Amino acid sequence: MASFTTTTRYGSGTGLLVTPGDADTLAGLDPARVIELLADAGFLLFRGFSPDLQQFSQFVKAHSSRITLDPARSFHGGEVAQKVDAGTAAVGLHLENGNSPFGPDLTWFFCEKAASQGSQTTVCDGYRVWDEATPGAREQFGQDIVYSRRVEEDKWKAFVFHHLGGSKEPRDITFDDMRALVAGKEDSTTITLNPDGSMAYSFRTPAARTTLFGERLSWANSIFGPSYNYETPRITFAEDGNELPDTLLDEMRALTEKVTEDLEWQDGDVALIDNTRVMHGRRAILDTDRTIYNAQSYLAEALLPAGPAR
């Protein structure tokens, strides 16, 4: 596999810009080296490799044990990439699927065509947030939080359909199939079937969490996340069931904005984000003539620097 010509710091944190070396395609990069860089950097921006959608999909597969999805989006170029289509408003910081028990290890983006202005993807390293948080905020977020929401029948069935590999038609999928997917997660997740076929769930998780690559705490969550295709979740503290106070949310919103960085997209850019450490979002879209794809996956266990992947 080829070496990297350049890995330079991108932005004010530890993120890296990766440019071509001996090979000028993503397929020529050593997956083990990619993940080694990601473990330190939190996010990587690959520029100058000029992939198409199929090459991007193969790059995702080369690092992944399993691909997951957002059931509200459609696939493009095979069962990997989904087009980013969440309106034009700014999107708050979040982990991909971070408000559910199905959060992936890795989040990927492919910019096929960049906007002429605006539309930057934002990234925020949860390590930096936790390190700069006040003692009071750390104390309050030392406890778990709980996301609770309702999901329409067609969306939870689409999610199950994907996880079953198409072995069942959507019309044949039952709530028992959904229960099977959360088996083993009962300590954090409860699900119930509503009379209209929708599902209600609650998911308990730390707001400041350990990551895929270590035990250091990262304030990485979906507290400020979007609900473009879904009902807005109710977010509470696990210990007392109270909603997070506005003063605390304002404090963390100001802190995250302080350390948030923009990915200034160019045509052909690919981004890889550690979805257990780095939150992402989006500035408002000012130019709708843009095309960006997203993928979600679980890291191939053989590529984890130490210990088994979750």
Explain briefly what this protein structure is.
The protein is α+β, with helices and mostly antiparallel strands. It has a single domain, classed as Clavaminate synthase-like (Double-stranded beta-helix). The chain contains seven helices and 19 strands.
Structure description:
- The chain has 310 residues and is α+β, with helices and mostly antiparallel strands.
- It has one domain (1-152, 192-310): 4-Layer Sandwich (Double-stranded beta-helix).
- It is 21% helix and 31% strand.
- The chain contains seven helices and 19 strands.
- It has helices at residues 31-41, 53-62, 126-132, 135-140, 153-163, 175-181, 246-259; strands at residues 6-9, 16-19, 43-46, 64-68, 75-76, 81-83, 91-94, 106-113, 121-125, 144-151, 189-193, 199-206, 208-211, 214-219, 234-237, 261-263, 270-274, 278-282, 291-299.
- The strands form four sheets. Strands 1, 2, 3, 4, 5, 6, 8, 17 and 19 form a nine-stranded mixed beta sheet that branches. Strands 7-18-9-16 form a four-stranded antiparallel beta sheet. It has a four-stranded antiparallel beta sheet with strand order 11-12-10-15.
- A hairpin with a 2-residue loop joins strand 13 and strand 14.
- Helix 3 (126-132) crosses helix 7 and helix 5 packs across helix 6 (175-181).
- The radius of gyration is 19 Å and the shape is globular.
- The mean pLDDT is 91.
